[in-house]
Each structure stands twice: as C-alpha cells, then as structure tokens.
Amino acid sequence: MEKTTPVIEPHSFYPIRFNDCDPFGHLNNSRYIDYFINAREDHLLHQYQFMFPEWIKRGYGWVVTNHEISYLKPANAYETVCIQTSLIEFGDSQLLVEGIMTDEKRQQVKSVQWTRFAFINITTGKKDKHPDDLMQWVTSLKNDKVDAAAGLKARLGQLLGR
Fold it and tell me: Bridge-partner residues for 1, per DSSP?
C-alpha cells in the first residue's frame, strides 16, 4: 500500500441502465445497492490500487452485514449519476462505508447508503481482526467529515443543509 496522500472521497460517474429500472423508469430500489457496491470496488481499485483477489489469496475477505439506505430523489433510466464513496468508521474487524449518489452536476442528492462490512477469515468462515498493515492503511482513508456515531439521519441533515 502506497504512502501517498489518499483521496478520501473518490467519485465516479455511471449511466443508469434501462434494465436496472422499474416500469416507471426509476432505478429499482435493490439496484441502488449494486451501484454503490460497484462504485466502491471501482474506487478501491482505481484510487488505491486495492485488489480483492490479493486478499482472497491471503485467506481473507469482507462480507456485508448491514445496509442502511435513504432514497431521496429518483435516479432515472439513461441519466448519468455521480457516486462518491468513503470510509466513515472502522474497527478491528469491521468497516463502515458511505455512498452518496447525486446527479451528474453533483448538486442534487439522490440517495445515501451506509454499508457495514465484516472482515472474515475464509478458511474458518468466522470474523477475524484486520491485520496491522491494513489498519494503518484504513486509518489514512477515514473521512473525518462524517460523524458516523450521529447516524444516517443526522448525516442526511448535513448533506441537505438542514
């Protein structure tokens, strides 16, 4: 893992695919989760050169234990959205990642998702502690602008200027 100053809030743009939408042309609620997870994976790879297969070879991985999501405005078929992700909390064996979906101009918040991941030893199938090298790295990625302890509702107020 590199020692350069990491981008704390990476973002990228995604077209909303017609086949991911409901009959009204709105992104299907369950597909928001896929867009957020895929964006975080893209950000880890492109911003940090973090490759999941390397961790799998080491015998470790992460599983989702919880999603908390707020749908604020619809994402529509053929629209381009911006998804920003960041690490907002971490512990010995867990990570909490925030995803924010906005319009292409990044002016209107469409959805916010918090996803909690548990670090798993693949051999045992049980939760394990993050290795020291990973803990040092995630410490450098934490988004200090977000008070995860205050909860998603408070974060929505912050994002929406309430």
Answer: none
Domains of the chain: 11-151 (3.10.129.10)
Distance CA 22, CA 40 (A): 24
Q: What is the pLDDT of residues 46-102, one digit of tens each?
A: 999 999 899 999 999 999 999 999 999 999 999 999 999 999 999 999 999 999 999
The closest alpha carbon to 30, from 78, 81, 67, belongs to 67
For 82-124, give the DSSP string: EEEEEEEEE-SSEEEEEEEEEETTS-SEEEEEEEEEEEEETTT
Rounded CA-CA distance 101/15 in Å is 12
Q: Which residues, 6+ apart, have CB-to-CB distance to 132 below 8 Å?
A: none
Distances (CA, A) of 125 to 57, 59, 96, 134: 15, 10, 20, 19
